[in-house]
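Q: what sequence does this backbone want?
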């Protein structure tokens, strides 16, 4: 009898970095559980992954800002009869305005998706994985977490620090945690938020396929922090040593 294929659960799997994770994990021999709000897009992505990679794909529609729907995803991760070997917490979005200009309900939804969902799903996934003695958790953070620019930056700083602490707690269990910190990447992300990026120089943009390939290589090496792109490795290294007063001044 052939061994069962490993299963990966990816949130925000219908576009951008999440879609590329789903494609590369399927190409690497994983079955998939894909999570997003848009049921029609989920079904289209599931059909693509099945046709191209012969993967078994389960769709799980969920709005991660809604606690009952988030819990359904957590319950799927915790199911001992259908183990998930890789968790990719990728779902997220940006807000266009400044903090004081935004409606507080929008800010709370933003926090729920970028922070609370990562907390809840990492907890469910890590508990199930440590019980089996194996697993990988990838939390998609951002280079923005190393600067001081609004609540997106703050949320991503939390994701990075949280993942570093989780990795330490998981040491010796057979389960790893990696914080992926990309910079500007060619996806729908900024367009969906209505943020114009015309002035961003070309050398600052990353290709999603190369980014995910590099990230998965870092995961296999057990790296806790993955920063794709030489330009962003240099930027993060600099941001970690310059005075925070200078970081705040630049953000202004």
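A:
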């Amino acid at each position: 009898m052939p061994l069962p294929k490993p299963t990966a659960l990816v949130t925000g799997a219908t576009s951008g970095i999440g879609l590329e994770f789903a494609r590369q994990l399927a190409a690497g021999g994983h079955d998939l559980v894909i999570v997003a709000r848009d049921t029609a897009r989920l079904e289209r992505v599931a059909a693509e992954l099945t046709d191209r990679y012969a993967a078994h794909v389960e769709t799980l529609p969920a709005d991660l800002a809604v606690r009952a729907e988030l819990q359904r995803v957590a319950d799927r991760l915790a199911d001992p009869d259908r183990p998930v070997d890789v968790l990719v917490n990728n779902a997220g979005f940006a807000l266009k305005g400044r903090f004081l200009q935004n409606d507080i309900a929008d800010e709370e939804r933003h926090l729920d998706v970028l922070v609370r969902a990562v907390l809840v799903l990492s907890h469910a996934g890590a508990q199930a994985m440590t019980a089996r003695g194996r697993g990988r958790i990838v939390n998609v953070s951002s280079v923005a977490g190393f600067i001081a620019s609004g609540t997106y930056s703050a949320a991503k700083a939390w994701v990075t620090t949280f993942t570093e602490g989780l990795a330490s707690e998981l040491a010796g269990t057979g389960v790893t945690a990696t914080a992926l910190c990309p910079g500007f990447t060619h996806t729908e992300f900024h367009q969906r938020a209505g943020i114009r990026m015309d002035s961003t120089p070309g050398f600052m943009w990353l290709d999603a396929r190369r980014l995910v390939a590099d990230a998965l290589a870092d995961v296999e090496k057990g790296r806790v922090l993955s920063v794709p792109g030489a330009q962003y490795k240099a930027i993060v290294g600099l941001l970690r040593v310059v005075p925070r007063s200078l970081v705040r001044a630049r953000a202004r």
